[in-house]
Amino acid sequence: MLKNFSPDKMLTSPFGITADQLRKMGKTTVLTDLDNTLLAWDQLDATDEIYNWFRILEEDGIKVMIVSNNNEERVKRVAVATKIPYLAKAKKPLAASFQKALADLGSTPEETVMIGDQIMTDIFGGNRQKLTTVFVRPVKDTDGFATKFNRFMERIILKRLAKKSELKWEDSL
Asked: Could you tell me which Pfam families the record lists for this protein (predicted)?
């Protein structure tokens, strides 16, 4: 059961992930959460770091999509500004959003990485779909109300994972 919640990698930030690293792993597609993965949950606009990372990945042939549980207005604001496709109200960890994202991008689970800051939604959902999962440190130490319970459960899971595995925080894939 714990395996379902175990990420393949734990990174301090998604921005250290490069197209070369992804290709060496046989990956061509990145699905990424938005809130507290790429920018603070209460920050409205994308940062230069987000723009640059998306641009570099896409120029190097990596397909990218934002898959977020947040509302349409919130996710669309960042996605349109960065010219990245998106799915809002994704209802992660349910399978439908992951399957739709893969279908929209013409990708398979084997060639896809899911990046997110929550074990209960991003990692669990990605693992259930057989994606490579990358757990990142949240951008901000605080969360919206809906995320607080998930963070409580996450702390319990991470303590158990630490006892059973070699996972540790790293700077790159």
From this structure: Hydrolase
Each residue's pLDDT tens digit, 105-129? 999 999 999 999 999 899 999 999 9
Q: CB of 88 within 8 A of CB of 76?
A: yes
Q: Is residue 46 part of a domain?
A: yes
β-bridge partners, 169? 10
Instruction: Kindly report the number of other CB atoms within 10 A of residue 75's CB atom.
Output: 21
pLDDT tens, residue by residue, 14-34: 999 999 999 999 999 999 999
Task: Using CB atoms within 10 Å of the CB of residue 160, give its burial: 0 to 12 exposed, 13 to 18 middle, 19+ buried.
Answer: middle
Distances (CA, A) of 45 to 38, 41, 104, 161: 11, 10, 25, 34
> pTM surpassing 0.85?
yes
The answer to the question of residue 173 being in a domain is: no
In a domain, 172, yes or no: no
Say which CATH number the domain at 86 has: 3.40.50.1000
Question: Taking a C-beta distance cutoff of 8 angstroms, is the pair 171, 11 a contact?
Answer: yes
Q: What's the rounded Cα separation, in Å, for the pair 160 and 142?
A: 23
Domain that holds residue 30: 2-163
